[in-house]
Amino acid sequence: MTYTAVLLICAVTLALAFWGLRLRRTAGDFYVASRRVSPWMNAAAIAGEYLSAASFLGVIGLIVSVGALGLWPPLGYAAGFVMLLVFVAAPLRRSGAYTLPDFMMLRFRSAALRRITALVVVVLGWFYVVPQLHGAALVTGFATSLPGWTGAAVVVGLVLAVVLSGGMRSVTLAQAVQYWIKLTALLIPAIFIALRWDSVQHTASGGGAGSASGAITSLSEQLPGDPLVVFSLVLALSLGALGLPHVLVRFYTNPDGASARSTVTVLLALLGLFYLITVFLGVTAALVLPDDDAAADADTALLQLPAVLFDPVASDVLLALLVAGAFAAFLSTASGLVVSVSAVVSQELFGGSVAGFRWGAVIAVVVPVLLTVMTASLGLAGAVAMVFTMAASTVAPVMLLGIWWQRMNAAGAVAAMLTGGSASTAALLSGILFFGSEAPVLLAYPGVWSIPLAFCVAVTVSLATAPMPSAAAVVARLHLPEG
User: Fold this and answer.
1) Alpha-carbon radius of gyration of the chain
2) What is the pTM of this model?
3) Euclidean distance between CA atoms 141 and 48, whole angstroms
4) What would the mean pLDDT of 84-95 be, rounded to a whole number?
5) Range with the lowest mean pLDDT among 32-36, 123-127, 228-232?
6) In contact, 314 and 66? CB cutoff 8 Å
7) Does pLDDT of 293 surpass 50?
8) Which of 47, 154, 260, 474 is the most exposed place for a label (fewest CB within 10 A)?
9) HEC sequence for 407-420
10) Quick one: average pLDDT of 304-319?
11) Nearest to residue 6, comparing CAs of 380, 338, 321, 329?
């Protein structure tokens, strides 16, 4: 039944890809879906690509392995879109840019900053695809008799099929459908568990976790956790959303700034519903599953639930549904990342042509495949949190200050991006290479200092150098309504 679920997801994805091929007519369709995506469709598509392996499996794994600290990531993920709604969505759409480097060039008139931004977008995209491939391998190895690499290969093949066929037009439709698949895959098991809550309490009482009420009390007593860890994590996750290229590119597809804001409003409701179900399932898993600190085992906590709580027939059906939802998560996020990287590679190296976009898609998946082969999983939520920290330390300060502070100039933007990027990356890599799981807080969670450092450098360098004569007109364009 698990194989059937995966094949069904593959068939639906391919069908959407061919449908997108029918709709694709121009380069604008490839890059921004001709800027005609409605708020509801765009919100579902953003939710589809944003709710990655870390959200579908990793949050539940965190709740199981670290307790109450695992409740903070959903808050950080959702808070990022509140900031997008208030500070970024409408101005970004009014810029008229195709890609993030295009936006930087429009605002700062700096070829050097454009090249740095392009490099950051590509690196962030590569690093973000890797956890999706690790997740696909993990789920395949757990739920089937196939080797894990086959799951990663399926994700790569389908993503290329969708992106190469219709670009952003195909990806938008596929991601919107995949959001509802993911939501359904979590909602049905959650309903079954809620209807059998007495059985859940009995299972928890019979194991080492103690009573269900006692375990929930234990979780609540852990809040808020280490204040420094919590603050750094929430800061990185909330500001990181402002620096994720595959999320930002979505606002270029709206017709105007008002529809971009409407998109985020709908999106917050979709994300809230998803994370409510995720937290419920995470707490349930913490109650009934045995303690296990291994990151890979914790990431399969959601997949372990059906066998613990239900009879074999129901367990097989629910496991197949969860596997289908997991593959929808891997495919939708990887598709968005590949589109964002492809657009940048095409614009920077191939003159923005459709053929260049397709070459960019190939480049966007080759490097993550090699990284996946050479690395082991760090835990899905932890790996994605690293990407958010890097995005929050590089792109986010430049975006916020560039949109809202007219005095911000190209020198400040370059200095901030280089400083924040090098500081966060060096800290994260040092923690992993030299300390492993025992890394100090300031290395494991560098956002608490690398993000403020990037902001301070941007302000200091901008004030110490000459203002940009063109800034006033560009900032006015970003904030004045269209027409």
Assistant:
1) 22
2) 0.85
3) 24
4) 85
5) 32-36
6) no
7) no
8) 474
9) CCCHHHHHHHHHHH
10) 90
11) 321
Contact 24, 30 (CB under 8 A): yes
Q: Which two tokens stand for residue 3?
A: 């194989």
Mean of the pLDDT values across residues 75-94?
Answer: 85
- Which of 12-26, 113-127, 149-163, 289-303 reaches the highest mean pLDDT? 113-127
Write out the two tokens for 288: 């009934």
Average pLDDT over residues 254-273: 84
**How far apart are the C-alpha atoms of 113 and 116, rounded to whole Å?**
5
Q: Locate tokens 């009995």: which residue?
A: 202
**Read out DSSP for 123-190?**
HHHHHHHHHHHHHHHHHHHHHSSS-HHHHHHHHHHHHHHHHHHHHHHHHHHHHHHHHHHHHHHHHHHH
Cβ neighbourhood burial of 481 (10 Å; 0-12, 13-18, 19+): exposed
Rounded mean pLDDT of 200-226? 51
Tokens matching residue 304: 């372990």
- How confident is the model over 364-411, as pLDDT tens digits? 899 899 888 877 655 666 788 889 999 999 999 999 999 999 999 999
| Both tokens assigned to 77 | 């993920």
Whether residue 31 is predicted with pLDDT greater than 60 in this model: the reply is no
